[in-house]
């Protein structure tokens, strides 16, 4: 599964331009699926039926990553950009990026002033991203155009997958290529001859700009219960606002509440019991600073009991996110246990 994650991280997929990711997953799952299709917004919907009657479980992982889009090419060849998804302007300066032009990936850097200029600057000011620019080494606008850059091209972080410590890794786009890898693995490794019900996998688009793909897919899958598999921000570093309620290396996150969802108690209690019965390390998650595709799925078709399996991460929505591979495996184990553990939709009713 780690090799699969590496492959997914190498694919560009900023919001609205997820074609490479969706194509890769479609090709990989085409021979496994009972049904597979791509809807008008680009969501890949993959269906696999179990051997026995049971609930329809929709599981969503978003294919997009936070990135940027080229807005303008200046006369001197520097590129102005717009954000795709949530970024912190404080961490953009001097970061390496890829600009995905018509000739492929062009390396670039988000420009900053030389340290020698600091004495002439107001160091208390955080420059707004609209004041910033990407430098691809072009001498002028004509050279930038000759390199294949156009308005509307996507920009992603240039951060390779790197192992760190005993069992951790950092890179870009763990949010949410981790979820994509988990959902692909569920299709590939589950013995569906033992499954009660149907798995409908949604590899959604445009999650980072308002859960748009999940909204488009939600009313079409007719789910009895739904999960999102996504990353979540930990609070285990020394900053003053951190409360150490979520940490790397402590297991899968089982969501109770976030900014988009009050998870169904029947769903998160079920996952909690599955984790305990199968010795899967877990931690309960209440964090209102985040939202996931479950925020769209739970309001579809009169309401769907929903929850989230979260991969804990540090430095989310930055050029260098970090995960613990033990947590990643715990999430895979929990999703597998859910598939084998579900038997009937009444398990997830509101009045139990």
List the keywords:
single chain, 352 residues, alpha+beta, Aminopeptidase, Elongation Factor Tu (Ef-tu), domain 3, 30% strand, globular
Question: How would you explain this protein's 3D organization?
Answer:
By secondary structure, the chain is an alpha+beta fold. It has two domains: 2-65 and 172-348, Zn peptidases (Aminopeptidase, 3-Layer(aba) Sandwich), CATH 3.40.630; 67-157, Elongation Factor Tu (Ef-tu), domain 3 (Beta Barrel), CATH 2.40.30.40. It has eight helices and 17 strands. The protein has helices spanning 2-9, 19-29, 141-146, 174-189, 212-221, 265-277, 294-297, 325-341, and strands at residues 35-38, 44-49, 52-62, 67-73, 79-84, 96-101, 104-110, 134-135, 154-157, 162-164, 168-171, 196-204, 225-233, 252-258, 282-287, 306-314, 321-324. The strands form two sheets. Strands 1, 2, 3, 10, 11, 12, 13, 14, 15, 16 and 17 form an eleven-stranded mixed beta sheet that branches. The protein has a six-stranded antiparallel beta sheet with strand order 5-4-9-6-7-8. A hairpin with a 5-residue loop joins strand 1 and strand 2 (44-49). The longest helix is centred in the C-terminal third of the chain and has 17 residues, at 325-341. It starts with a helix and ends in an 11-residue tail after the last helix.
Task: Detail the topology: elements first, then pairings.
Blueprint: H1 2-9, H2 19-29, E1 35-38, E2 44-49, E3 52-62, E4 67-73, E5 79-84, E6 96-101, E7 104-110, E8 134-135, H3 141-146, E9 154-157, E10 162-164, E11 168-171, H4 174-189, E12 196-204, H5 212-221, E13 225-233, E14 252-258, H6 265-277, E15 282-287, H7 294-297, E16 306-314, E17 321-324, H8 325-341
Parallel strand pairs: 3-12, 3-13, 13-16, 14-15
Antiparallel strand pairs: 1-2, 2-12, 4-5, 4-9, 6-7, 6-9, 7-8, 10-11, 11-17, 14-16, 16-17
Helix pairs in contact: 1-4, 4-8, 6-8
């Amino acid at each position: 599964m780690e090799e699969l994650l590496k492959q997914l991280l190498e694919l560009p997929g900023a919001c609205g331009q997820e074609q490479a990711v969706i194509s890769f997953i479609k090709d990989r799952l085409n021979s496994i699926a009972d049904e597979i299709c791509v809807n008008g917004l680009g969501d890949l919907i993959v269906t696999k039926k179990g051997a026995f009657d049971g609930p329809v479980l929709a599981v969503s992982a978003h294919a997009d990553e936070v990135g940027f889009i080229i807005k303008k090419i200046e006369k001197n060849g520097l590129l102005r950009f717009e954000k795709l998804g949530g970024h912190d302007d404080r961490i953009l300066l001097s970061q390496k990026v890829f600009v995905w032009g018509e000739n492929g990936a062009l390396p670039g850097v988000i420009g900053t002033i030389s340290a020698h200029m600091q004495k002439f600057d107001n160091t208390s000011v955080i420059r707004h991203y609209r004041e910033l620019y990407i430098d691809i080494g072009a001498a002028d606008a004509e050279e930038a155009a000759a390199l294949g850059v156009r308005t509307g091209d996507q920009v992603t972080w240039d951060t390779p997958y790197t192992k760190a410590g005993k069992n951790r890794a950092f890179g870009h786009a763990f949010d949410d290529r981790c979820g994509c890898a988990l959902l692909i693995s569920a299709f590939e490794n589950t013995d569906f001859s033992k499954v009660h019900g149907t798995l409908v996998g949604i590899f959604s688009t445009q999650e980072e700009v308002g859960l748009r793909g999940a909204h488009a897919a939600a009313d079409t899958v007719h789910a009895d219960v739904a999960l999102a598999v996504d990353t979540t921000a930990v609070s285990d570093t020394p900053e003053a606002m951190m409360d150490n309620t979520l940490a790397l290396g402590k297991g899968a996150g089982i969501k109770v509440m976030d900014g988009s969802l009050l998870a169904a108690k029947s769903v998160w209690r079920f996952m909690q019991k599955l984790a305990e019965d199968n010795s899967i390390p877990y931690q309960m998650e209440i964090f209102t600073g985040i939202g996931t595709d479950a925020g769209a799925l739970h309001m579809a078709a009169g309401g769907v009991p929903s929850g989230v399996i979260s991969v804990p991460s540090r430095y989310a929505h930055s050029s260098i996110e970090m995960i613990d591979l033990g947590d990643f495996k715990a999430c895979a184990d929990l999703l597998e246990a859910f598939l084998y553990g579900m038997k009937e939709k009444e398990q997830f009713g509101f009045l139990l």
